[in-house]
Amino acid sequence: MNGNQEHPHADDPQRSPLRVIDRLVSAVNDHDLDALTACFADDYVNITPAHPARSFTGVDQVRQNWRTIFESLPDIQTSVVSAAIDGQVVWTEWEHRGTGRDGSAKLLRGVVIFTVGTERITGARFFLEPVDDDARGVTAALTHQLDR
């Protein structure tokens, strides 16, 4: 993971919330559901501003979501493209790659803004989406979005 190495505590494992994000990345790449859910507080709150009905509270939903992801994308691998921290808030840019059960390539990219408590993620604002490979340029895509 690329972190904000200029932050005064970025390399301090006792004080850096990046340590929790590193554990999360490893758990996803190892497909370790228990290690993954251990990264989240029991009362974790996920807010999905672009899709409000997808917001949820609780680590049980995290487990259910990732169980489905691991079953649907059995070779999923993830990386954090960049990260910056401000206190207990970690801004992360993600990329998820995998192959669907039908053999199709899947690619998701976006930003997740985490709040990290003591050793666990307590909240997130989630902006991760499938990559749209539509060949339309920006003007046509914008017009399409505004005409919906």
From TrEMBL:
Please list every transmembrane segment annotated in the UniProt record, as residue ranges: none
Kindly give the Pfam families that the UniProt entry links to this protein: SnoaL_2
Q: Which domain of life is it from?
A: Bacteria
Q: Which residues form the SnoaL-like domain?
A: 22-122
Q: Cite the InterPro entries for this sequence.
A: NTF2-like_dom_sf, SnoaL-like
Q: What is this protein called?
A: Nuclear transport factor 2 family protein
Tell me the organism.
Arthrobacter vasquezii
